[in-house]
């Protein structure tokens, strides 16, 4: 992941650190683990760029780095907003790494699912303004990342799609994926889309309200910066309290049922029938390629 921004440097152990201007002021801080880059310039707006080829799958390692990056930004008082995008052409994120859910131990599934929960709790509950610049396809967990942001701008290419397609894999979107979806598009659209496991091409996603606007791909980052400026023009405390008011019930629900949710996931994913569905899905992906 690639994360970039400016302001007070508070992170980056072992990575490239802060550039110092002659007056000793930080010019920018570039922090990156291997899977994303992060930069925070003077504007106080960080840019986080996923860079985990081939398709930015959300592996345990990726999720861990994502959560740590979010925590570092959240704790950096100079950082007020983050734009999330991808360095890979055509892919924002392919969602959860299916190989993390196939043929592994119960302990591994537990650790993996806790990391998925942690990422979502941090992103959905963030005090920062979060804007997703969706520059490619974004199925399932990738859609969750985008939906957890405050605003979604997608490249207008109809070949790019977004949605919670879990049902197509023979699995079920967990209740907090569903809650996030309902909060974005409303109950009816969420119900139909979830039951069918629909992946919506960008224009349809826009019509449904799953993304807030479409722009030509080359204008995506420029537009994301403009939207960010608009959101940051308001006092932080008022915006943050409002955001909390809108999202708290859904966040609290997972916090209250976190261990139960992990148990459900581990039991569900360990079933031979589910393992078989996931293996078949992976085989289908490989065949589609050849
Ligand atoms: C009773 C209640 C109990 C509750 C229990 C809850 C259980 C719920 C559990 C989990 C929720 C799941 C969430 C998810 O996110 S699952 C993941 C869903 N993702 C997808 O369906 C996307 C699949 N991928 C694609 O459609 C395409 O790859 C693409 C559109 C993203 C990119 O297409 P393209 O550029 O053509 O690339 P390839 O298809 O050729 O892929 C390249 C390479 O990457 C592998 N790959 C793709 N996606 C994934 C993935 N998500 N995880 C792991 N690996 C992936 C693909 O197989 C190729 O591999 P290669 O052949 O070895 O090169």
From TrEMBL:
E.C. number: 5.3.3.8
Pathway the protein contributes to: Lipid metabolism; fatty acid beta-oxidation
InterPro entries, alphabetized: ClpP/crotonase-like_dom_sf, Enoyl-CoA_hyd/isom_CS, Enoyl-CoA_hydra/iso
EC class of the enzyme, as a word: isomerase
GO biological process: fatty acid beta-oxidation
UniProt-listed PROSITE patterns: ENOYL_COA_HYDRATASE (PS00166)
Sorted UniProt keywords: Acetylation, Fatty acid metabolism, Isomerase, Lipid metabolism, Mitochondrion, Transit peptide
Subcellular localization(s) per the UniProt record: Mitochondrion matrix
GO MF terms held by the record: delta(3)-delta(2)-enoyl-CoA isomerase activity
Domain of life, per lineage: Eukaryota
Catalytic activity as recorded in UniProt: (3Z)-dodecenoyl-CoA = (2E)-dodecenoyl-CoA; (3Z)-octenoyl-CoA = (2E)-octenoyl-CoA; a (3E)-enoyl-CoA = a 4-saturated (2E)-enoyl-CoA; (3Z)-decenoyl-CoA = (2E)-decenoyl-CoA
CC terms in the record's Gene Ontology section: mitochondrial matrix
The family this protein is said to belong to: Belongs to the enoyl-CoA hydratase/isomerase family.
Chain's role: Key enzyme of fatty acid beta-oxidation. Able to isomerize both 3-cis (3Z) and 3-trans (3E) double bonds into the 2-trans (2E) form in a range of enoyl-CoA species, with a preference for (3Z)-enoyl-CoAs over (3E)-enoyl-CoAs. The catalytic efficiency of this enzyme is not affected by the fatty acyl chain length.
Subunit structure: Homotrimer.
Protein name (Swiss-Prot/TrEMBL): Enoyl-CoA delta isomerase 1, mitochondrial
Organism per entry: Zonotrichia albicollis (White-throated sparrow)
Gene that this polypeptide is encoded by: ECI1
């Amino acid at each position: 992941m690639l994360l970039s921004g400016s302001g007070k440097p508070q992170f980056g152990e072992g990575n490239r650190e802060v550039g110092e201007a002659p007056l000793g002021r930080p010019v920018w801080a570039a922090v990156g683990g291997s899977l994303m880059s992060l930069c925070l310039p003077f504007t106080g707006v960080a840019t986080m760029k996923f860079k985990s080829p081939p398709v930015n799958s959300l592996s345990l390692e990726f999720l861990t780095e994502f959560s740590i990056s979010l925590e570092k930004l959240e704790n950096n008082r100079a950082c007020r907003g983050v734009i999330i995008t991808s360095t890979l052409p055509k892919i924002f994120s392919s969602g959860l790494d299916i190989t993390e859910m196939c043929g592994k131990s119960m302990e591994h599934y537990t650790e993996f699912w806790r990391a998925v929960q942690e990422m979502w709790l941090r992103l959905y509950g963030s005090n920062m303004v979060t804007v997703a610049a969706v520059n490619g396809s974004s199925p399932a967990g990738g859609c969750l990342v985008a939906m957890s942001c405050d605003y979604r701008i997608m490249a207008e290419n109809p070949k790019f799609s977004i949605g919670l397609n879990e049902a197509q894999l023979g699995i079920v979107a967990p209740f907090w994926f569903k809650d996030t979806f309902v909060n974005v598009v409303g109950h009816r659209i969420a119900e139909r889309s979830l039951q069918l496991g629909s992946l919506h091409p960008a224009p349809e996603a826009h019509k449904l309200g799953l993304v807030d606007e479409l722009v030509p791909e080359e204008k995506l980052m420029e537009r994301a910066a403009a939207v960010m400026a608009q959101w940051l023009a308001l006092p932080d405390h008022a915006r943050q309290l409002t955001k909390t008011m809108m999202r708290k019930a859904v966040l609290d629900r997972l916090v209250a049922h976190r261990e139960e949710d992990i148990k459900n996931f581990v039991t569900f994913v360990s079933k031979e029938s589910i393992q078989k569905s996931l293996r078949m899905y992976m085989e289908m992906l490989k065949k589609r390629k050849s």
